[in-house]
TrEMBL record:
Ranges where the HhH-GPD domain occurs: 35-186
Job of this protein: Adenine glycosylase active on G-A mispairs. MutY also corrects error-prone DNA synthesis past GO lesions which are due to the oxidatively damaged form of guanine: 7,8-dihydro-8-oxoguanine (8-oxo-dGTP).
GO terms of molecular function: 4 iron, 4 sulfur cluster binding; 8-oxo-7,8-dihydroguanine DNA N-glycosylase activity; adenine/guanine mispair binding; metal ion binding; oxidized purine DNA binding; purine-specific mismatch base pair DNA N-glycosylase activity
EC number(s) from the headed UniProt entry: 3.2.2.31
UniProt remark on cofactor binding: Binds 1 [4Fe-4S] cluster.
Family matches, as PANTHER family: ADENINE DNA GLYCOSYLASE (PTHR42944)
Record's protein name: Adenine DNA glycosylase
Reactions it catalyzes: Hydrolyzes free adenine bases from 7,8-dihydro-8-oxoguanine:adenine mismatched double-stranded DNA, leaving an apurinic site
């Protein structure tokens, strides 16, 4: 039996019931694929339902302001995905008259869409035989064929794409692509794969040679950078504070945060108060206290943020224009959102 026949047979018996499986609308498939990049299905599902309810068409998403989109995305992380999604929605509406592109070559031109997402949409919605290659697919193919080429190397990316393309069922490429992704997610799992009940265990190289734990191979990650964040949580007598939008191309672009003093190591209260930014910000007398006695370590893909929240109380401050009772309307990084869930400013 051909590889794709056995895989699709497994899928039809074991596939997960998910809302984006009930449609071939490219807008909904696109939403789901963007959301599920770097995100588990269990976490992404509620966001997908919220987005499709609030923005049922690409026109609705296009006319929303970016701040609203980012607020709805809050907690999913990798916020460039949301900004690219919004940008591409406006492009589809304004440049393509609201008609979603229908070929791999056109879909991949959308901002934030790479080979994997373009392949998924083209195959599922338009029956184009373009193979998906994501983490699940890398794992299945490397184990089944016993491939040691690093999946995150230039050579590996080409090798696995070529292999995946050679295996696809050209008559039902969308079903095949969803099958291999589901198989990797629920059967050929990263840890504790279900090898004993696997339909491929009679022909899988990794299972035969006891290499399941060794495959796939990944090149060593980039060194993690440590950063030290000191947020100044301002509270005036009339219950006002400061939030400002993060600019530039770094993390959390477009999200809001308290005034930030970033340092190259942990710093104490005296160093905070004597810093140039603190002196510039507070011309009047203040009371300062550390909210979290232990630094909060917030881990991103290539950096760890060692964070302290400093509560700064002052009688009045011209720059403090945001009322505390409206602060949760702003899109903020999950690090700040978690703090706001805990902190209750006293009147």
């Amino acid at each position: 039996m051909k590889f794709y026949n056995k895989l699709i047979y497994w899928y039809l018996k074991n596939k997960r019931t998910l809302p984006w499986r009930e449609t071939q609308n490219p807008y909904f498939i696109w939403l789901s694929e963007i959301m599920l990049q770097q995100t588990r299905v269990a976490q992404g599902l509620s966001y997908y339902l919220k987005f499709t309810t609030t923005f049922p068409t690409v026109f609705d998403l296009a006319k929303a302001d970016e701040s609203t989109v980012l607020k709805m995305w809050q907690g999913l992380g990798y916020y460039s995905r949301a900004r690219n999604l919004h940008y591409s929605a406006k492009y589809i509406v304004n440049e393509l008259n609201g008609v979603f592109p229908s070929t791999y070559k056109e879909i991949i031109k959308l901002k934030g869409v790479g080979d994997y997402t373009a392949s998924a949409i083209a195959s599922i919605c338009f029956n184009e035989p373009t193979a998906v290659v994501d983490g699940n697919v890398y794992r299945v193919l490397s184990r089944y064929f016993g491939i040691y080429t690093a999946i995150n190397s230039t050579e590996g990316i080409k090798e696995f794409k070529t292999l995946a393309q050679s295996l696809i069922d050209k008559k039902q490429p969308g079903t095949y692509n969803q099958a291999i992704m589901d198989f990797g997610a629920t059967q050929c799992k990263p840890q504790n794969p279900l090898c004993e009940s696997c339909p491929f265990n009679d022909s899988c190289v990794a299972f035969e040679k006891n290499l399941v734990k060794e495959l796939p191979v990944k090149e060593k990650k980039i060194k993690v950078r440590k950063r030290y964040f000191n947020y100044l949580v301002i509270k005036t007598e009339d219950q006002k504070t400061i939030l400002s939008e993060r600019k530039g191309k770094g993390i959390w672009q477009g999200l809001y945060q308290f005034p930030l003093i970033e340092s190259d190591k942990s710093i104490n209260q005296k160093e905070i108060v004597n810093s140039e930014k603190f002196i510039d910000l507070f011309p009047n007398e203040t009371t300062i206290s550390l909210y979290n006695k232990k630094e909060i370590i917030h881990k991103l893909s290539h950096q760890h943020l060692y964070t302290s929240f400093w509560i700064v109380e002052t009688k009045s401050l011209k720059k403090a224009t945001i009322s505390w009772n409206k602060i949760k309307q702003f899109p903020v990084p999950v690090l700040v959102a978690n703090f706001l869930e805990e902190f209750q400013p006293k009147n």
